[in-house]
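A favour, since you know our structure tokens better than I do. What I am after is a single protein written out in full by you. Could you add the entry underneath, on a fresh line?


***
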Amino acid sequence: MTKTPLRVLPSPEAIGLDVAEGLLASIGSARVAGRHFLLGCPTGRTPKPVFAAMARRLSETKQDLSHVVLVLMDEYLVEGTRGAGLEYAPADRPWSCHYFARVEIAERLNAGLPRGRQLEERSIWFPDPRDPEAYDARIADAGGIDYFMLASGASDGHVAFNQPGSTRDSRTRIITLSESTRRDNMVTFPLFGTLDAVPHHGVSVGIATIADAHAAVMIVMGASKRETLSRMQRAERYEPDWPATIIHECSAGEIVSDPEAAASGI
């Protein structure tokens, strides 16, 4: 057994509710203390049950989110026009991280809140491909990420866009995406249609960026995540060939799984 605790909950919905309740409590404590709360988060299938549960609870409690900062992990990059280099994927594409942050996170959480308590648009951060290193400085200047919600690639253990081989000290940077990562992302976003439509580059927080968070949870759900859960459970520290093992380097880290992902018997 690894030093990072594993909890197996009955369903994705149960995971969503459990993580949401703890997260909202921490957000509330930060509000009472008069400080911002930086939430590091992925896009895609994994965080959806959490944000759905948060939205339901917020519609009842009207809890203030105006001090919350969303620190997005990554974004796809595409070739700019007229040789401008790599730039963000269009924000109106449903598979883009900007779209997800706006529609699946901000709009969902804000729907039941009065305007003065809503998550603010200016408080949704992305790493800038023109100056990736500045992202880590911005996070540090704000006091660091309070809580990082993490997800792992099914086939190669990538976390954010950190590919196998990413070093422990890596920071926010532009990354060339492997075919295995791009195939995983095509499953996450079927709207891509074909592998050729999945961008070849992304800007992403680094392994050290994730490890610096004050607390973190790695969420694994579904039969396709059995291998990544098994790899994390066999590891005791960060292993570069399976980046999701960074959870073992995170302060107050935990792994939360559903029975489908945990069915390997580990």
About this structure: Residues 157 and 242 are 5 Å apart (CA to CA). The domain at 6-257 is CATH 3.40.50.1360 (Rossmann fold). The first strand starts at residue 6 and ends at 8.
